[in-house]
Design brief:
By secondary structure, the protein is an alpha+beta fold. About 15% of the residues lie in helices and about 35% in strands. The protein has a 4-stranded antiparallel sheet with strand order 1-8-3-6, with no helix packed on it. Strands 2-7-4-5 form a 4-stranded antiparallel sheet, with no helix packed on it.
Length: about 100
Amino acid sequence: MKKYPLAFLVFLLLIFHIFTIPVGAEPKTLHEGFYKAPDLNLSHGIHTVQNTSTSDYAFIAIFDSNQVTRQYMRLDPQSDKYILIPLESEFEIIVSSKGSIIIN
């Protein structure tokens, strides 16, 4: 009889553990400025970018350590999510916008 409450508690712990979001997976809101990839604390892997402004365009440029442009995007107001190249530790990111963008 004591096995059922114990099994139920273990089940609840597993369910709550599944729905936790790792800290690195939280979206980052960026405003106009210069950023280095390590300072953003993004997890490794694929990221998306989206313009949240309702009226202004946003521009994002990603440069490598040799100042070579690796990716450049113009994001329309209230844009869809677009996939970024995998960010390496030496990459620098420039955001130009009156509003903000979100990187997931």
